[in-house]
Amino acid sequence: MSKAKPVSEKHDGLLIFPYYVGPAVRPFSIGLIWSGRLIVTIPGWPSGKPPQIFLEIVQYSVKINHPLNKLFATALHYYNLASKQGISELEKLAPLGDKLNRIFLLNPGERLHYDDWLPFHERCLPTVSKTLENQQILNSACTEFVWRVYALFLELDENPQKVLDYLNGRLSSLGYPDHYLLLESALHHYSIGKVQFPEIITDSIDVLAVFSEVGSSLSENQDNVEVRVAQLAYLLFQTLLESYIPRLLPKNLEFLLTVLNNKNDSINSAKKKCFKEANKLIVDKSNGKERIAETINNLKNEITEIVELDAQAWKSLLQSLSEDRVFWTSIAGLLGTLSGPMPSVVPAAAAITALSSIGTTAMKERKLRRELLQKSPWSLIYYLKNKN
């Protein structure tokens, strides 16, 4: 397992989120083709102290039969699972070399930073609870909880009893059951704006819903055309290639590397055309179905070259797209032609704002944030259709 980079270094590529490296990264092969590199987060920290301290507190909570000992044991189990799966997945993906950028992702875990989320609990925690039905996201939440407990340990005089008392008191004051501590940690994990990544890719509709909920409070549903163009550009690229680009599995890596190494000119040309066509559709308001079909045909040369399709295969692809309800619904949502709110499969532009430093301070500064959004390094958030 190669050494992960600290968060202060420059990161190139798409950041897979909210997962740590593990089985959940396998569907993101098209993201790899698009960007040439994927960023994965390691379920751990540069120091071994956080898990060591957490284990000691777990053992202490069991010894005194504390009410939270079962929750702590659960968090430890899924953190260990995340670590085990992460090591295994990195070994399997080792042939990708520097096309897989490994990093540690650290959020501030102090009490103040968690308190910043309190205004969003009522609206967000029900959706966050749904995200934890995905075991890989549960792994991330438990890992974040380990970090939170370590930060509390440092804040509270390195006293395990004070840590347990604080968490128990927080639950009592908020009127929440034990598992809400994991929901808080999951919600906190989604605040990654303190690390300036240019692009994110996700396949979790529920996580996007959380981003949208928080972002709508901060941006007042501001529409960002540049963001929608970028989303639509990637949607076009992904949809045209998804039947021909296999998942990130060891047996497929040689093929993926061959495409990356030998089809670079066609990939770059396809990306430029995707942005050009997406801009026409959104900015020029030319959003009829015939115009979209023309857009797809304008990408024929690049797509057929990247995955070596003959005329019959291209015809079959067009036929399948004509019957793809998810594709047309996503197109309609990004073009704003649906009546009512966007469907959940379409990431809201407000999600971009949600990835900034979120909380009560951010709410006070939202006017400034709206201005900064136009120049933000957060240029893209992608929704990758689930291939399970």
SSE diagram, text form:
Elements: E1 14-20, H1 29-35, E2 38-41, H2 49-63, H3 69-92, E3 100-103, H4 111-115, H5 121-131, H6 135-155, H7 160-174, H8 180-189, E4 199-202, H9 205-219, H10 225-241, H11 253-262, H12 264-283, H13 289-298, H14 300-307, H15 311-322, H16 325-335, H17 351-354, H18 360-364, H19 366-373, E5 380-383
Parallel strand pairs: 1-2, 1-4, 2-3, 4-5
Helix pairs in contact: 2-3, 2-6, 3-6, 5-8, 5-9, 6-8, 10-12, 10-16, 12-13, 12-14
Give a concise summary.
This protein has 388 residues and is mostly helical. It is built from 19 helices and five strands.
What does the model show?
By secondary structure, the protein is mainly alpha-helical. It folds into two domains: 14-218, no CATH class; 225-348, no CATH class. It has helices at residues 29-35, 49-63, 69-92, 111-115, 121-131, 135-155, 160-174, 180-189, 205-219, 225-241, 253-262, 264-283, 289-298, 300-307, 311-322, 325-335, 351-354, 360-364, 366-373; strands at residues 14-20, 38-41, 100-103, 199-202, 380-383. It has a five-stranded parallel β-sheet with strand order 3-2-1-4-5. It is elongated, with a radius of gyration of 22 Å. Mean pLDDT is 79; it is low at 1-10 and 337-388.
Short key terms for the protein model shown above:
mainly alpha; 59% helix; 19 helices; single chain; disordered C terminus; 388 residues; disordered N terminus; five-stranded parallel beta sheet; elongated
